[in-house]
Amino acid sequence: MNISSDKLRTFIFDLHTKQTFDEVGGKKHIEKMGISIATLLDFESGELQLFSEKDLDKIINLLKNAYLVVVINLQKFSFRVLEGISHSNLSSVKNLDILKYVKKKVHFKPAPEDLFAATLEKSLKIDYSTVPRFFKQGKTDEAQKYVVQIARAVYDIYIFGKKKGYIFMNDKTGQRWKISVNW
Fold first, then answer.
1. CB-side exposure of 100: number of CA atoms within 13 Å?
2. Which are the contacts of 148, defined by CB distance < 8 A and separation ≥ 6?
3. How would you write the pLDDT of the chain (183 residues) with one tens digit per residue?
4. Which of 104, 111, 127, 164 is the most buried (most CB within 10 A)?
C-alpha cells in the first residue's frame, strides 16, 4: 500500500523506538531513542503502512498534511521522539490523543490496556520495551505483528467511540466506566 499525501486524511498513528528510556539516559534524551517501526493506518480505507527511521521525512510530511492524527500518548511520546530526531515542529498537527481526551473526562490518566479491555474486550498490553527488544534480536516479523495489533486496537477504539458516542474504561479497582466521547 502506498498512502498518498495529497489528500487530507485521518490516520491512526503509532510509533515504537529502537531503544528504551533507560538505554538513552532518561526522557530528557528522547531524541536518541530512534524509530524502529511507525504505523499509519488510514481511517477511510483501513489500510496500514509500516515505516522505519529511513522514512522519517515521509512520516513527517504525512502527519503535517493529515486532517487528523489519532493516537494514544501522542504529545508526551510519539511527537517528542519525532521532533527530537527530525528537528521538526509538529505542534500544528491536528490530533486526538485518546488518553489525554479520557484524562480530561475522568481526571486521571488511564492505561491503554484499561481502554482495550473495557471497550474491545481485548487483553493487549502496551510495553514500550517489547519492540526495541525484538528490534535488537532481529525479530522483525514479531515486532511488526505487535505494532500492527496495537494500531488496529487504537483504530477499533476510535471507531467504537465515533459510532456509539462513548467508550469504556476499567479503573484500578476493576470498575467499568462509560465515557462519552465526541470525535
1. 11
2. 39, 48, 50
3. 455 554 688 999 999 999 888 999 988 898 889 899 999 999 888 889 999 999 999 999 999 999 999 998 766 788 888 988 888 999 899 999 999 999 999 988 888 889 999 999 888 777 778 888 898 899 989 999 999 999 999 999 999 999 999 999 988 888 899 999 999
4. 111
Greatest Cα pair distance in the chain: 46
Structural domains in the chain plus CATH codes: 10-180 (3.30.420.10)
Q: What span, in angstroms and rounded, lies between the C-alpha atoms of 151 and 58?
A: 18
Q: What distance lies between CA 51 and its chain's CA centroid?
A: 13
- Residue pair 101/45 in contact by the 8 Å Cβ criterion: no
Q: Which three cell numbers, joined as nine digits, stand for 64?
A: 503535517
Q: What is the pTM of this model?
A: 0.86
105 CB-side CA count, 13 A? 17
Instruction: Output the nine-digit C-alpha cell for 72.
Output: 494514544
Angstrom distance (rounded) from CA 54 to CA 85: 11
Q: How many CA atoms lie within 13 A of 65 on its CB side?
A: 14
- Give the burial class of 179: count Cβ atoms within 10 A of its Cβ; 0-12 exposed, 13-18 middle, 19 or more buried: middle
